[in-house]
Design a protein that fits this description.
Helix content: over 70%
Shape: globular
Strand content: under 5%
Number of domains: 1
Number of helices: 10
């Protein structure tokens, strides 16, 4: 109750940048509680505890956005209203990612490796299945297909659990944070931490932030449909408006995924 009472959707929409600190706080507390109580399973437990702190806010936000669908008839204005919620979700994700990155680097190496073991295994699995030796169309397609799969999971989790997509997004944040931490540590071996850290953040967040934005958009669409199914009769005018808005959100999320995939496949390999 203490953590979830720190902020509500109304204040978050007014000051979205504050969510960066909220995400940092939630994930930091979750990491140390996981290390203290469930040290062997800390990598997963810290994700679940972070999610537990975020769910009340995300649930209230999705409910509020569904109510906007009923009240606002202008689709352009409605999408603008949705963006206010999406912007603070992105800051929340950045805060979570920065927190996990920091603790990956600051913790003693043995503790860091144990805490982020499952994330490291995931990264190794991804690297073994996808190799970007050169920017090419087949690599772009593999990236897009993988991201679309995550997109579908976000929609499904949000539809079934309301705010369920926050689990997938927090998990992705922990994996990205581990990848950034590994990159910074390897870069610091040949240069300085002050040089390696910005490069590490840029390499993964350049395409990571658009991807996460797309997942949040899709998760919001799935959550709105979920609330609409509960609150409104199928075929009613209100339900049709909500369905139209959700379709627009899903189309936007897919277009963002295509853009993020292009950046990851063609731009990131050129820069790094």
């Amino acid at each position: 109750m203490v953590l979830e009472s720190l902020i509500n959707p109304f204040s978050a929409e007014k000051r979205p940048w504050e969510m960066l600190f909220i995400g940092f706080l939630y994930s930091t507390i979750a990491l140390f509680l996981a290390r203290w109580i469930f040290s062997q399973y800390a990598g997963l437990v810290m994700v679940f505890l972070t999610v537990a702190a975020c769910i009340p806010l995300m649930y209230s936000t999705i409910k509020m956005e569904e109510e906007k669908d009923v009240k606002i008839r202008d689709e352009g204005l409605l999408l603008k209203e949705h963006w206010r919620a999406l912007s603070f979700f992105v800051f929340l994700f950045i805060g979570i990612t920065l927190s996990f990155t920091l603790w990956y680097m600051v913790l003693p190496q043995s503790l860091s490796q144990q805490t982020f073991a499952i994330q490291s295994e995931t990264i190794s699995s991804i690297n073994n299945s996808v190799t970007a030796n050169a920017a090419n169309f087949s690599y772009f397609i593999r990236i897009v297909l993988n991201n679309v799969k995550v997109l579908v999971f976000c929609i499904l989790f949000s539809f079934l659990y309301g705010a369920g997509s926050i689990f997938i997004l927090t998990w992705n944040g922990s994996v990205i944070a581990t990848a950034i931490g590994k990159f910074i540590q390897s870069g610091a071996a040949t240069s300085t931490i002050y040089h390696a850290a910005p490069l590490g953040l840029l390499r993964y967040l350049l395409h990571g932030i658009p991807e996460i934005l797309a997942y949040f958009v899709a998760g919001l669409a799935g959550g709105i449909i979920s609330f609409a199914v509960i609150n409104h009769d199928f075929g009613s005018d209100k339900f049709q408006r909500i369905l139209l808005d959700s379709t627009d959100l899903l189309l936007i999320s897919f277009l963002i995924i295509l853009g993020a995939g292009f950046v990851e496949a063609y731009i990131t390999p050129l820069l790094f």
